Amino acid sequence: MTVWYLLNNVLVGTSQHFAGERIDDAVESTAAVIAAGGQVRASTVQLAAASLVAAAMHRQGVPPSEVAEMMMAVQLVAAAYTVDVTALTRHETFVKPQAAATVLKSIVETAANASVTVQINCPTNLQVVWDAGWSGGDLIITGVGPDGGVQTEMFTANPGGTTVGVKPFISINPNGIVDVAPAAVGADNASVQTGAMLGLAATQSTTAFKLMVDGVQEAISAQSGANRTVTPTTVKANTKYFDVWYYATHAHALV
């Protein structure tokens, strides 16, 4: 799905489209608008704001040609912006994180959803350990990531095995463990547990370059920049302190 904004006024068949109009291509094709001479641009912060102004101008009776001129001017200014990407150095300390495989909740295969019994004390990925007889469905877990945003991940059912997640969570919502296809009968369980990773609070991609455990530097076992996670060589334990230094990408516009 892409959101577009119309820069000019255009007649498409018998329908008049005005500058500033928002077009969601999941709902309406832009092809007919473009074929009729419409100039559309993919959404930007500037165009989205200008669209709101354009709507107000139309309501106030401003001539459509002047609204179109405004939209064109905003597009020209937005096009003149360049994006500067820099790497900011950040440091986070994880104090006595729960060990990997700490059970947060066991959900029975007949339940549609469940709330955790034990909450997460440090940002981490999750894993689900399935009883061999599990006949329920996949689990979808929803909560909050370490950056404060909504975090959702699906865990594919694997009776008798373990499904390891890759996304970090700092909390799981009430009834945030959802069985997409509960069994009609049965008493087998899926155990939702903490994983081995540490989750970083950055909102952009990360590159960790230093890890210390209880003040002693060690190698980073694994990391995912896209998911913003680091796996220490030393197994997580609630008696240890983990310090991670990393670069986080930051983008901002320049004129």
End-to-end span in angstroms?
Answer: 28 Å
User: How much β-strand is present in the residues?
Assistant: 35-45%
Oligomer: single chain
Strand order of the largest sheet: 6-20-16-17
- Average pLDDT works out at 91
Describe what this molecule looks like in 3D.
The protein is 14% helix and 43% strand. With 255 residues, the chain is mainly beta.
Please render the helix and strand layout as text:
Elements: E1 3-6, E2 10-12, E3 15-17, E4 22-24, H1 31-35, E5 40-42, H2 45-59, H3 64-79, E6 82-95, E7 103-108, E8 113-114, E9 126-130, E10 139-144, E11 150-155, E12 162-164, E13 171-179, E14 189-194, E15 198-199, E16 206-213, E17 216-218, E18 220-224, E19 229-232, E20 241-254
Antiparallel strand pairs: 1-4, 1-5, 2-3, 6-20, 7-14, 8-13, 9-12, 9-14, 10-11, 10-13, 15-19, 16-17, 16-20, 18-19
Helix pairs in contact: 2-3
